[in-house]
Design goal:
alpha/beta; 10 helices
């Protein structure tokens, strides 16, 4: 019997390549406005967007305000006059059109599927995530999808995981969370009393996750190890 019967899988940064998706969506949104795009412009956007999300997670700014402000500030930095609300709407639409998959993700799901219930557990916006998963190669392997916006609660809240486990009828002792984010995925699993696998490029060990891996295939070895 495999070590874990139920696997909660983060989406962006674990199975889906959000960096590629973000880049593609931003480039397309800029092209429609006649704005040139390059690595420096991408970094300029990240320099604005990342701190705003950090402020949001600290409870200092709402998600709705963040999404408009990032393009307001970015437009000013680029010297572009553009409606930040329209820009954000287009950007979000374009995000939903891009379902880039990380290398090894499909192979991992194929290896786990025969013995595990595979569950996508994401904090992403519902419309975007649903559209990104449409015709996506990872979709056939998923037994259930739980999106925070649809649930009214998200990772790392204990209640998010409790709702997921209750809906699945899953045993917490046989459930593991696989994700790349220490705060939402790993701390969330700790909050809910679940084991966790941190998928990270970091070489330094972190005491928070149960396991730490640098390659997705290592997750299969851990999950499928016989008890």
């Amino acid at each position: 019997m495999a070590r874990y019967k139920t696997v909660l899988l983060d989406a962006d940064g674990t199975l889906l390549d959000f960096e590629a998706t973000e880049r593609q969506a931003l480039r397309r949104s800029m092209e429609t406005r006649g704005i040139p795009f390059d690595d420096g412009i991408m970094q300029a956007y990240l320099d604005i967007n990342v701190p705003l999300w950090a402020a949001h997670y600290r409870g200092e700014i709402s998600r709705e305000t963040l999404m408009v402000k990032r393009f307001e500030d970015f437009g000013k930095a680029m010297g572009v006059t553009a409606d930040p609300e329209d820009w954000n709407r287009e950007y979000l639409r374009l995000l939903g059109d891009c379902g880039n998959v990380l290398p090894g993700a499909v192979e991992l799901l194929a290896a786990l599927k025969p013995q595990c219930t595979l569950v996508l557990a994401t904090n992403g916006l519902a419309d975007i995530q649903r559209r990104r998963l449409r015709d996506n190669p990872i979709a056939p392997y998923l037994d259930a999808i739980f999106i925070s916006e649809e649930m009214g609660i998200g990772k790392p809240e204990k209640g998010y995981f409790e709702q997921v486990l209750a809906a699945l009828g899953a045993d917490p002792a046989q459930t593991v969370m696989l994700g790349d984010d220490l705060n939402s995925d790993i701390q969330g699993a700790v909050n809910a009393g679940l084991d966790s696998i941190w998928y990270s490029r970091a070489k330094e060990r972190n005491p928070l996750p149960t396991y730490q891996i640098g390659r997705l295939e290592q997750a299969a070895e851990i999950i499928l190890e016989e008890r």
